[in-house]
Amino acid sequence: MNNRQLFLRHLAQTSDAPLALEITHAEGMYMYQANGKRLLDLIAGISVCNMGHCHPAVVAAIQQQAGTYMHLLVYGELVQSPQVAYAHLLTQHLPAHLNSVFFTNSGAEATEGAMKLAKRHTGRTEIIGFTNAYHGSTQGALSLIGDESMRNAYRPLIPGIRHIAFNEVAALQHITERTAAVMAETVMGEAGIRKPTRAWLQALRQRCTDTGTLLILDENQCGLGRTGSLWAFEQYGITPDILTLGKALGGGMPLGAFVADRLIMNDLTHAPVLGHITTFGGHPVSCAAGLAGFEALLHADVIATIPAKEQLFHTLLQHPRIQEVRSAGLMMAVQLDDFPTNKKVIDYCIERGLLTDWFLFCADALRIAPPLIITENQIREACTLLLEALDNV
Ligand SMILES: Cc1ncc(COP(=O)(O)O)c(C=O)c1O
User: Fold this and answer.
1) Does the Cβ of 107 fall within 6 Å of ligand 1?
2) 240 in ligand 1 pocket by Cβ < 6 Å?
3) pTM over 0.85
4) What is the pLDDT of residue 209?
5) Domains of the chain (ranges, CATH numbers)
6) From atom 14 of ligand 1, which residue's Cα is the shortest distance away?
């Protein structure tokens, strides 16, 4: 049996139609397949490898840390320099009250930790999420996500969770003194790239402050430079009480985090003690990789290049079959008529060397979320192929 057959036989599948492309190696903007074909990566592992695949500084940091120490003891017991250095650097680039980092293994785990922290800190039980939001696949995160078909298959879920409409002022009235937390993606990803208005996000912030509710912002997809500022919330003139991170946080290694004020975070240390624990969260190799990736992101000044790249995509992606292109920096959705059209375009592109996909809750839009290092020529190459696909499918 070849690798593809073994993959289908022995790896648990998440759908009945996996891409099942066999990748032998990846570097920069490209993945290389066993069949000798190269793929230009337009989705960065869903907003993960912001600095491209196998960035040399990240690879060196992994190798160095792997030879120094790997797992030592459950998270939180020992002083491990990769965790300390990364938490220190991250908090230097966050508002002053986001000064305490709890590292996790994934974005979903960051959601779980943030939900628990909000309940514990406020003594309240209600949590509010948004229609079409995505925060992960574990039971707590699943309870909070905003898609009924995904939630419904796994009931009963966590009680006390309500869903309201994103970017609607009237919906904010549902946030009351009973609400422990509201969790929102600053820019919605899987809903097909939906940006809130500045006025609405500020009103959400205000409503949370007025009711003593904690505002949790999820920047798994939109954080770490992708929208053209280090954090997406910077563009809205507000700050969250808790920030959740993942995806690009580990530089390509598994790493998530929830970040809050030390005074809030300390609630996890008592009554009960060890209120939130993890064996591998903040793995030293992941933290070393994430730190190297974060430093590379800052030093390469790549964030400053994003508005021009975003604009170039908009300029080039003109076609009668494109309804609109929604974007927040290099987090983009190309809105097509329907899923069959989108799927044909995606398949056409993959066949000819361009990797893209659709969104969980917006299957008729095509995803553009490349490594942030994409060049002007690569944007032109990608758009030429996308337009050619739209002419031919
Ligand atoms: C906005 C957002 N939050 C949380 C998650 C969950 O992250 P993970 O898949 O690492 O659990 C995702 C994953 O796609 C996401 O897009």
Assistant:
1) yes
2) no
3) yes
4) 98
5) 3-55+301-392 (3.90.1150.10), 57-299 (3.40.640.10)
6) 136
